[in-house]
């Protein structure tokens, strides 16, 4: 999991298109020649978002498959919690009390 952390930080970058759209509208209002440059930025940002979406884990799974996987993972967590409680109740572990 530690390997995926830097990738998650990159994915959490701002993907808002609104500032670019705002810049395009401002350029159009001013009859500026920068409109094409701003449109190219918007197009690049949209392409980047498409690439991020296509690289997301599970994107190739259907919603039914994702629900089945989620149910399986929840069952595993429930089972592990039950085992943990069982082991805790055996009193085999001397847990030092925090003071």
From TrEMBL:
UniProt name for this protein: Mediator of RNA polymerase II transcription subunit 9
Family designation: Belongs to the Mediator complex subunit 9 family.
Keyword terms, alphabetized: Activator, Coiled coil, Nucleus, Transcription, Transcription regulation
Subcellular location: Nucleus
Function: Component of the Mediator complex, a coactivator involved in the regulated transcription of nearly all RNA polymerase II-dependent genes. Mediator functions as a bridge to convey information from gene-specific regulatory proteins to the basal RNA polymerase II transcription machinery. Mediator is recruited to promoters by direct interactions with regulatory proteins and serves as a scaffold for the assembly of a functional preinitiation complex with RNA polymerase II and the general transcription factors.
Highest taxon, organism lineage: Eukaryota
GO molecular function: transcription coregulator activity
Record flagged with keyword Ubl conjugation: no
Coiled-coil positions: 32-90
Gene Ontology cellular component terms for the protein in this record: mediator complex
Pfam families: Med9
InterPro entries membership: Med7/Med21-like (IPR037212), Med9 (IPR011425), MED9_metazoa (IPR039242)
ATP-binding recorded as keyword: no
Alphabetical GO biological process terms: regulation of transcription by RNA polymerase II
Subunit structure: Component of the Mediator complex.
